[in-house]
UniProtKB/TrEMBL annotation:
The lineage of its organism: Bacteria, Bacillati, Bacillota, Bacilli, Lactobacillales. The keyword Nucleotide-binding applies. Pathway: Cofactor biosynthesis; molybdopterin biosynthesis. One of its GO terms (molecular function) is GTP binding. Its EC number is 4.1.99.22. Catalyzes the cyclization of GTP to (8S)-3',8-cyclo-7,8-dihydroguanosine 5'-triphosphate. One of its GO terms (biological process) is Mo-molybdopterin cofactor biosynthetic process. This is GTP 3',8-cyclase. It is an enzyme of class 4 (lyase). InterPro entries: Aldolase_TIM, Elp3/MiaA/NifB-like_rSAM, MoaA, MoaA-like, MoaA_NifB_PqqE_Fe-S-bd_CS, MoaA_twitch, MoCo_biosynth_MoaA/MoaC, rSAM. It catalyses: GTP + AH2 + S-adenosyl-L-methionine = (8S)-3',8-cyclo-7,8-dihydroguanosine 5'-triphosphate + 5'-deoxyadenosine + L-methionine + A + H(+). [4Fe-4S] cluster 2 binds at C251, C254, C268.
Amino acid sequence: MKDSFNREIDYVRLSVTDRCDLRCTYCMPATGMRFLKKTEVLSFDNILFLLNRLAEQGIKKVKITGGEPLTRPDTVALIRAIKEISGIEKVTLTTNGIQLVNYAQALKAAGLDGLNVSIDTLDPDEFREITRVGDLKKVLAGLNKAVEVGLPNIKVNTVARGELTNEAICEIALLAKASKIHVRFIELMPIGLGKGCPGKTQEEVILALQQVYGELIPFEHRLGNGPASYFSLENFQGKIGFISALGHCFCAECDRIRITADGCLKTCLHMDDGCDLKEALQTENKEQLLAQVFTAIQKKPEKHHFLENQGDSRLMSQIGG
């Protein structure tokens, strides 16, 4: 599948739930969230029908997102089933890590190809303040378990909040020194509660790292499905990566679409558009489904408009991170 700008679309980010066991300050309000009812969320069969049809049209990579995908009881079974779909080459998962210690072995057995774990600080008190309810010990135990069982391509994602000190940046980066874990700093995007929140630029983070660890050397190879740029540091086993949608726009190479937990196809994270695939999925109407997908992809915008203050009115957890 190609869009009107000749970009090949071969990657889908699929949200399997809008629920989460954390309440991060830049993502969700402390109270008052209205979550989807179970009947509104795509079922196991809906998802497999969708991905089988997308794989027939050239989708090769699937990222399972949320909310927190490990709050959905059948996520591991779903990953195992997706791995069996002809044409799907990689299935990866993004998680906050709270339940990872209990699922790492099962994810390995299911054939997961990569894992992203969100860790915004290594200070336990600050972690609880950011997440409102989170226990950093559980996340680190899950990360260690993932390494222990041999899950491949493990990445730690850190949102480059304005409050992130240079010392905290360097401390988080050390996760890439002792193990082959890639640490990525993600530019804070103005979506939902993230609008108006201060963030650090890629250049600010690089400067903080170089002052302590020396020169960051560009690493030219890809380390996953996404748009991150990577750098090597001397004596570090893992790489340091950056995802900077505002400061280093990568829209020209965008190869993805997103599916929300309730079956809305979005062609751009930022835009408040898309189409509802739920009816076609529930009736397993292949022709209707593909017609909607092809039409949406042809309307995929050339680039995001974060800096023009337009965009989706939903929270990140409702879109799929």
